[in-house]
Amino acid sequence: MALRNILNEDEELLRKTSREVVNFDRRLWDLLDDMAETMYEANGAGLAAPQVGVLRRAVVVDVGDGLIELINPEIVSKKGKQTGSEGCLSSPGKYGLVTRPMKVKVKAFDRNGKPFTVEGSELLARAFCHEIDHLNGVLFQDLAERMLDPDELEEA
Ligand code: ZN
């Protein structure tokens, strides 16, 4: 495993649409392992492949309940709403107020190409939405009602 460089929000590549993963092979596994290591090293709750310069539909998420890998993920249902602070490893020190669904159901493939469905609520739902947005070139700033000052974070 190796740490990868996390692209900054200004990088053009973060605005591109990522392509589907078609080969569930060693190259994908290395990418996923590196992404997880990079996310943990940066104390993040999620990381998408384009953030490490790879335009493939792969994300890793861990909101404290274990690592979840999503390949070619699709949100198949959404319920409710939550508004709260959100940040991004590509935008260090920046936070915004973003409204997301309270619950989502995501269809995806695991690293071996096996399909599965996973549900997330609250923080996990937010992380799924945020990371899947990255695969479509969308950043949280695009959706933020407004950006937050650091001293507002606890209230948000
Ligand atoms: Zn992000």
Question: What can you tell me about this protein's structure?
Answer:
The structure is a single chain. The chain has 156 residues and is of the alpha+beta class. 21% of the residues lie in helices and 30% in strands. It has a single domain, classed as Peptide deformylase (Peptide Deformylase, Alpha-Beta Complex), CATH 3.90.45.10. It has helices at residues 26-41, 123-134, 140-143, and strands at 46-48, 58-61, 68-79, 82-86, 95-100, 103-109, 115-121, 146-148. A five-stranded antiparallel β-sheet has the order 1-2-3-6-7, with helices on both faces. A three-stranded antiparallel β-sheet has the order 4-5-8. It starts with 25 loop residues before the first helix and ends in an 8-residue tail after the last strand. The model has no long low-confidence stretch (mean pLDDT 96). It binds zinc ion (ZN). Zinc ion binds at residues 88-90, 130, 134.
Short description:
This protein is an alpha+beta fold and 156 residues long.
Secondary structure tally: strands = 8
User: What's the CATH architecture?
Assistant: Alpha-Beta Complex
First-residue to last-residue Cα separation: 36 Å
Please give the largest β-sheet. Answer: 5 strands, antiparallel
The SSE order reads: HEEEEEEEHHE
**Approximately how much helix is present in the residues?**
10-25%
Question: What count of domains describes the coordinates?
Answer: 1
Shape: globular
**Hey, roughly how much beta strand do the residues contain?**
25-35%
Biggest sheet strand order reads 1-2-3-6-7
